[in-house]
From TrEMBL:
Ketoreductase domain boundaries: 6-186
Family the UniProt entry places it in: Belongs to the short-chain dehydrogenases/reductases (SDR) family.
Pathway: Lipid metabolism; fatty acid biosynthesis
Quaternary data: Homotetramer.
The protein, known as: 3-oxoacyl-[acyl-carrier-protein] reductase
Native organism: Neglectibacter timonensis
Database matches in CDD domains: BKR_SDR_c (cd05333)
Gene: fabG
Record's signal peptide: none
Alphabetical list of PROSITE patterns matching this protein: ADH_SHORT
EC number: 1.1.1.100
Domain of life: Bacteria
Reaction catalysis annotation: a (3R)-hydroxyacyl-[ACP] + NADP(+) = a 3-oxoacyl-[ACP] + NADPH + H(+)
Sorted UniProt keywords: Fatty acid biosynthesis, Fatty acid metabolism, Lipid biosynthesis, Lipid metabolism, NADP, Oxidoreductase, Steroid metabolism
Entry GO MF terms: 3-oxoacyl-[acyl-carrier-protein] reductase (NADPH) activity
Length: 245
């Protein structure tokens, strides 16, 4: 299996894209630290599914906005499962609204979770990756970070920031054998997009005329986590049906 003997930390792993990515990595041999906030039950269910594959899994509650909580969580993962080989920063939220009426707290919340949370997680794993001279960091951005979106100045800024963060980390850690890349999904069938129907005009802008599946993103995450991508770093791969061409 491609990831046999590897350990992956996946944030936002109890549902949606994070869950699909965690399960895909586990299917291919990785043990998984399921990082979540909110209800514990879905995270434990993901762990059970992973364990049924014969892999190790453990759930960890962690608010990625909290620097100390992130540091303690990464230490706990190291004690329980070992040092991470793969980090997937998937945790994210939206608080949409036109810029004119957007509240500061909604702007700050989105930036703190989507961007600063990834910064906290990478920094907490940084030294371990350097010492191992190996690591795969995968940041889940968005096409909104590439082209912007009306009513999402906060979300687009956070996802564009992830791309810049990833390029900088790729340059810092490249000589240590660590790769850092982004995935930029378009319209993917998750809880965030549940209100988008097939006849929505937005989908008419997608050359493939349909939404993607979480598995489409998970397959790219698997590639970026695997040895097949060892000479790819600082890249952003779109999974958007051609929307941002």
């Amino acid at each position: 299996m491609k990831l046999e003997g590897r350990l992956a930390l996946v944030t936002g792993a109890s549902q949606g894209l994070g869950k699909s990515i965690a399960l895909k990595l586990a299917e291919n041999g990785a043990d998984i630290a399921v990082i979540y906030v909110g209800d514990e039950a879905p995270a434990l269910e993901v762990c059970r599914e992973i364990e049924a594959m014969g892999r190790r899994a453990k759930a960890y509650f962690c608010d990625v906005r909290d620097e100390k909580a992130v540091e303690e969580t990464v230490k706990a993962v190291s004690r329980d499962l070992g040092k991470a080989d793969i980090l997937v920063n998937n945790a994210g939220v939206t608080r949409d609204g036109l810029m004119l009426t957007m509240k500061d707290e909604d702007y700050d919340l989105v930036l703190d979770i989507n961007l600063k949370g990834a910064f906290h997680m990478i920094r907490a794993c940084y030294r371990d990756f350097m010492r191992k001279r190996y690591g795969k960091i995968i940041n889940i951005s968005s096409i909104a970070g590439l082209v912007g979106n009306i009513g999402q100045v906060n979300y687009a800024a956070s996802k564009a920031g992830l791309i810049g963060l990833s390029k900088s980390v790729a340059k810092e850690l490249g000589s240590r054998g660590v790769c850092c890349n982004c995935i930029a999904p378009g319209f993917i069938e998750t809880a965030m997009t549940k209100d988008i129907k097939e006849d929505n005009p937005l989908l008419q802008q997608v050359p493939m005329k349909k939404m993607g599946k979480p598995e489409d993103v998970a397959n790219v995450a698997l590639f970026l986590a695997s040895p097949e991508s060892d000479y790819i770093t600082g890249e952003t791969i779109r999974v958007d049906g051609g929307l941002a061409i």
